[in-house]
Amino acid sequence: MGQEFYLTGYFYAAVFLAVGAVVVLGGLIASLLLAPRGHKTREKLRAYESGEEPVGTAWVQFPVRFYIFALLFVVFDVEAIFLFAWATRFGQLGVVGLVEMAIFILVLVAGLVYAWRKGVLKWT
Amino acid sequence: MLTLTLNHFLVLGAILFCVGLYGALAKGHAVAVLMGIELMLNSVNITLVGFARFLAPDQLLGQVFAVFVITAAAAEAAVGLAIVLVVYRQRRTVNVEEVDLLKW
Amino acid sequence: MSDPLVTLVFYGIAAVTIVAAIGVVSLRNIYRAALCLVLTFLGVAGVYILLNADFVAVMQVLIYAGAVTTMLLFAIMLTRSPGSPRSNAANRQSGLALFAVLVLVVLLVLALGTAVWPQTAPVAAQSSVDVLAKQLFTTYALPFEIASVLLLAAMVGAIILARED
User: Fold this and answer.
1) pTM reported for the whole predicted model
2) Contacts 24+ apart (CB under 8 A), C113-117
3) Structural domain spans, chain C
4) Angle between helices B30-54 and C30-50 (to 10 degrees)
5) I want to staple B16 with a disulfide (CB 3.0 to 4.6 A). Which of B9, B43, C65, C145 is the partner?
6) Thinking of the domain B6-91, which architecture would CATH place it in?
7) What class, spelled out in words, does domain C1-90 have in CATH?
8) Of the candidates C4, C52, C154, which has its C-beta nearest B78's C-beta?
9) ipTM, interface predicted TM-score of the complex
10) How far apart are CA A35 and CA C133, in angstroms?
11) Which residue of A has its CA nearest to B74?
12) Ranges B1-5, B90-94, C94-98, most confident
């Protein structure tokens, strides 16, 4: 990769980021400026106007089952990153790299099989 | 001042480390303590990558080290938060000051 | 890295990162503190890009800002005590902690002020993923495989801990 391209490429990414932030903030600020005030009746403040009445607060405790899925997501996210590094040099690394990556994936699949056998992946 | 040197990155890492240390030492919520630890790990990574960039740019040892630090940090967060969940299930609290016994 | 614009960008990113980090330890609501932590992670990723470490930056965004934060937010939601706005309060030793941190600040300032680093030739800004991948799969192949065992151990351990019996 050319060295001129390195920082200019990220400069374009930063411009995209800034434009995205401006669009979101612009929408929020425009609605703040343009929206009529003083109509905050009880009906207006409900979560779903003329919809289903929410029960209880949003601050309830979620089942622990969610955590295990987040955990598996983290582990396979890390695996995906290493796969990416391997893929960029796939040609030069050759068979040795393939074997290394296969061992890496097999070890992690063992963990997935464990989770499966323990039944934590079932959503009941 | 207009040329970036190693010291710029070291100072940034030091500031983040101090903020993270305060979070890890002075917070009541166990998840907040873990967030402070994550901040400290990030600051160390900045220093490692900074050293790799300014002192040994051909081998990138600091970056390799940072890659493994991030991997270990993901594993640490997974187990640490699972422990927080277990403590909460047993004691109905996540305040680290109320969980100060090794056995109960 | 003599471009003044790059230096200016560094100061901007550093300011955002530090302010967000202070938000992590000072906001009253732990949910907002966690969202500040995402901003800190993204700022640190920007610093990595300035340091030619774009692969580490991608790792930072995907693993820290994406996955670890998801897990933190889940853990906050799973252990929530009902109706406590001051969920991120300081504990009893916060004064002592502040003192210890200030001592560390003084030590670090002294160390940074006296340190002398060897001068190296300036390097061009370029992507590091190629060299890094080569290092990971040749010289550091064994740590790479051990990392998978570490992840396996963490996965099994966390499942055993978090499983509902």
Assistant:
1) 0.88
2) C117/B6, C117/B54, C117/B55
3) 1-90, 128-165
4) 10
5) B43
6) Orthogonal Bundle (1.10)
7) mainly alpha
8) C154
9) 0.91
10) 53
11) A74
12) C94-98
